[in-house]
Amino acid sequence: MALTIEQLNSASAPEAVAMLDGIYEHSPWVGERALAERPFKSLAHLKLAMVQVLERASEDEKLGLIRVHPELAGKAMEAKTLTAESTNEQGKAGLTNCTPEELAHIRGLNKAYGEKFGFPFILAVRGPRGTGLNKKTIIETFERRVHHHPSFELGEAMRNIHRIAEIRLNDKFGRDITLGNEVWDWQEQLAVYTDSGYAELGQLTVTYLTDAHRACAALISTWMTECGFDSVHIDAVGNVVGRYEGATPGAKALITGSHYDTVRNGGKYDGRLGIFVPMACVRELHRQGKRLPFAFEVVGFAEEEGQRYKATFLGSGALIGHFNSEWLEQKDADGITMREAMKHAGLKEEDIPKIQRDPAQYLGFVEVHIEQGPVLTEKDLPLGIVTSINGSVRYVGEIIGMASHAGTTPMDRRRDAAAAVSELILFAEQRAAKDGDSVATVGMLQVPNGSINVVPGNCKFSLDIRAPNNAQRDAVANDVLAALKDICERRSVRYTLEETMRAAAAPSAPEWQKRWEDAVDSLGLPLFRMPSGAGHDAMKLHEVMPQAMLFVRGINSGISHNPLESSTSDDMQLAVEAFQHLLNKLTA
User: What pLDDT score does 73 carry?
Assistant: First the structure.
């Protein structure tokens, strides 16, 4: 019989401590301290309270907790002295059935890890879905993490301990994460499709209107139909559009969605999470035979990343009438124009203007997205409320100095272009850091025809500057460009600089941000507000209607645009529940 939060709240202190026994390995003090926060509003509230106990714990207490955990496939497993919980978890992962070669390799990793960090390797072996990682994934994770910096790995160990505790609490309280599992599974199944040339490498890449891209659209369409959408179609630019009509014919609609294309060798959740979370909401509405007082439109945007063609936000831009006809003449790496790709996909360019939405017919736009950064995971928070999508400006430039002999040119007579760019990089880093939430990045750096024994005469570079509002972005940019001029004058070099992109910040509409805040609060979670450093489809819809976003925590330090990008089905379940709350409280 599963426990309930009500039982935990009403139990005596000794009874309550006993109820939480085994959640944190050999550490009942965690549950004991967390109980001071009673009454708990929800299981999510209890989980967070236990996490916060450890945030307030001393370093010795944290290390003590880590060190009472057994090694993976270690001596305790062989001696059968693991706790029941650990035995179950290592068994589900197949670690109790390793080959001699696998055991030897894991023992070697355990030894190297222990010598470097002074504590055992901790991994939530039941994984982000709760059903268990396979041995190959476990060993690859072990091999990767043994190279981490000690301070970072201490945090990773604690985060994995919290994930282990979360799964154990789910088991104890009978937590239903059916919808989160469904969202997680959809993303895994969609990731089967990947562009030619990348499938052979085991990499996920889905770019605009390739065979893999069209297969994704077809599968999303099928799933939308199965969920109970009243109409599903693929529009003139390849967006997959599902509409669930409201109780009143002709009512305004709420629009949501995200993109299903990916960067090259990317992750499974960027964009796609924002399609599947609202799809799960529609599935539940359909199962219950329930209609909302407004129509609900979910869009899988065909293109956001600008990978095959330089046409970023093509899908969402087309919905607001911002499709640039000049894009049709662009060619991909194989010389195929966008016009040819669209014709091959059965799309008609003359129909593109017809898909433009009338903002007067919409309540607004909301988007759920994986965070794509480390903030939520480092704060041990599953959800974050986006306050603004950062404004950005990008440049490409070149510094021109004088190539000269590296051995014969004195240091005070050099016109070193690479050294000038290096100084600019450091200035940009320091200037952006002064704001706390601005960022500046030189992501491309090239010394054309460089040689080991030549002072660089040319250095090409990129510059990307972002901030939560336009004024702050421009202040950083102005200071960095002024520094570039000063550096070049002082070093007797010259420069060229071209602005290649400027995007306005997209602050969340206050009333819609508040709706997300109410939804998160209803789950018993604290409100954490944060800007989005990455661009999203919401930026385009922001130009014609109010918008607001909800972030979902990523694991593996929140990494994104990377195969390690991931999230848990628990956090996805919370995202679905937050979205359901928003829908249920919204009136047309």
Answer: 73
Per DSSP, the three-state class of 348 is coil
- Quickly count helices (H) and strands (E) in the chain: 21, 16
- Axis crossing angle, helix 59-67 with helix 150-173, rounded to the nearest 10: 70
Which pairs with CB-CB distance under 8 Å and at least 24 residues apart come from 445-451?
Answer: 445/421, 447/417, 447/418, 450/418
DSSP code, position 237: T
Q: State CA 309 to chain mean position distance.
A: 23
Rounded to whole angstroms, the Cα distance separating 566 from 270 reads: 9
Q: State the Cα–Cα distance between residues 258 and 368, nearest whole angstrom.
A: 8
**Neighbour-count burial of 459, counting CB atoms closer than 10 A to its CB (0-12 exposed, 13-18 middle, 19+ buried):** buried
Residue type, 326: E
Q: Is 567 left (phi over 0), alpha (psi -120 to 50) or beta?
A: beta
**Residues across the chain:** 588
84-122, pLDDT tens digit by residue? 777 677 766 667 777 888 889 999 999 999 999 999 999
Whether the CB-CB separation of 320 and 547 falls below 8 Å is answered with no
Q: 426: which residues sit within 8 A by CB, 6+ positions away?
A: none
Give the DSSP H/E element, type plus range, for residue 464: strand 458-467
Residues 6+ apart with CB under 8 A from 458: 398, 399, 400, 401, 403, 417, 447, 448, 449
**β-pair partners for 331:** 337
| Torsion-angle region of 127 (φ positive above 0: left; ψ -120 to 50: alpha; else: beta) | left
Which residues have C-beta within 8 Å of that of residue 314, sequence separation ≥ 6? 208, 237, 302, 303, 304, 306, 323, 327
Nearest-angstrom CA–CA distance, 444 and 425: 11
One-letter identity of residue 178: T
**Which residues in 172-198 are b (16+ Cβ under 10 Å) and which e?**
bbebebebbbbbbebbeebbebbbeeb
pLDDT at residue 143 tops 90? yes
Phi, psi of 405 (to 5 degrees): -65, 130
pLDDT band at 420 (very low <50, low <70, confident <90, very high): very high
Token pair 């972030």: residue: 551
Structure tokens at 489: 């004058």
* Cβ-proximal residues to 434 (8 Å cutoff; 6+ apart), any chain: none
What is d(CA 201, CA 224) in angstroms, rounded to the nearest whole number? 30
Give the pair of three-digit tokens for residue 187. Answer: 């993303």
Interval 486-516: pLDDT, tens: 999 999 999 999 998 888 999 999 999 999 9
328-371 residue pLDDT tens = 999 999 999 999 999 999 999 999 999 999 999 999 999 999 99
Compute the distance between CA of residue 349 and CA of residue 98 in angstroms, rounded to an integer.
Answer: 57
Instruction: Spell out where 316-473 has E strands.
Output: 362-370, 383-389, 391-400, 404-405, 439-441, 445-446, 454-455, 458-467
Label residue 581 by pLDDT band (50, 70, 90). Answer: very high
